[in-house]
Amino acid sequence: MEYPTDQLSRYTFEEHDVRGELVQLTSSYQTLIRGHDYPAPVQELLGQMMAAVSLLTATLKFNGHIAVQLQGDGPLNFIAVNGNHNQELRGIARLRSELEATDLRSMIGKGQLVITLTPDTGERYQGVVSADADSISTMLENYFEQSEQLHTRVWLHADGEHAAGMLLQRLPATGKDLSGFEHLATLTDTITAKEIYTLPAEELLHRLYHEEKVHLYPSQGVSFVCGCSRERTLEALASVSPEEIQEILAQEGEIVMTCDYCLTEYRFAPSDFN
Predict the structure, then answer these.
(1) Residues 12-61 pLDDT 10s
(2) Start and end residues for every CATH 3.90.1280.10 domain found in the chain
(3) How far apart are CA 224 and CA 89, in angstroms?
(4) By C-alpha distance, which of 197, 262, 167 is closest to 5?
(5) Which CATH superfamily is domain 230-273 in?
(6) What is the CATH number that goes with domain 7-224?
(7) pLDDT tier for residue 3 given thresholds of 50, 70 and 90
(8) Is the Cβ–Cβ distance between 82 and 66 less than 8 Å?
(9) Which of 24, 109, 180, 244, by CA, is between 20 and 30 Å from 30?
């Protein structure tokens, strides 16, 4: 089956002051989890987080970066996804012990969702919301309500192969009542995981909102981009003392560094430190 893959679509409604977004991920998601040996529930959470960061990045009014990190005292130490305005995403998860239960509250324990916005120019902003919720979607809705006072609904799905998400947001200061937003949210609640994974954007929006006048904008590609390089890895080694570097080289003959995100291996010989 041909799946719509790795694209973000934005849409608006002619008769409602509401904007929407749809993201559908396949290869970028598979690249992010490949080789990491994450348990299936963690793979699914990473997919949901990846879809969430894509949706969040699309709501930003600036060029820059966004980082979303879910951290707690449970078996899942933290899970984090970073993205930018070009829809280039990467992510990672760390477990401190084996998972006994696979619901979100049990995996995270007591914790928080931290959203950090870093514009290319301007001040950095950080928002924090409690992780005391049954889903990442609810945490994000709480974040928008708390930090931006915007009525927002988020739907996230992932199954280890596909990840997808939708966002509806009431446009600020429109003066119209909430009934239009709530009506559209009720329609969107009928979406199934299979539909959001398999239907092209135009077909999916028609299925949900066929009685509405919807304007669908050109889609934007989404990709996994780690951003690591041999040069950056060598720069990171500058924080290690020269004595320690020489000691490792004397014992091992080389220094091997592995990127946490994409698992690329970088090897450095004594000549790299001259």
Answers:
(1) 998 899 999 999 999 999 999 998 999 999 999 999 999 999 999 988 87
(2) 230-273
(3) 5
(4) 197
(5) HSP33 redox switch-like (3.90.1280.10)
(6) 3.55.30.10
(7) low
(8) yes
(9) 109
**Tens-place pLDDT, residues 119-173:** 998 899 999 999 999 999 999 999 998 887 788 999 999 999 999 999 999 987 6
Neighbours of 207 (CB within 10 A): 14
Ranges for all domains in the chain classified under CATH 3.55.30.10: 7-224
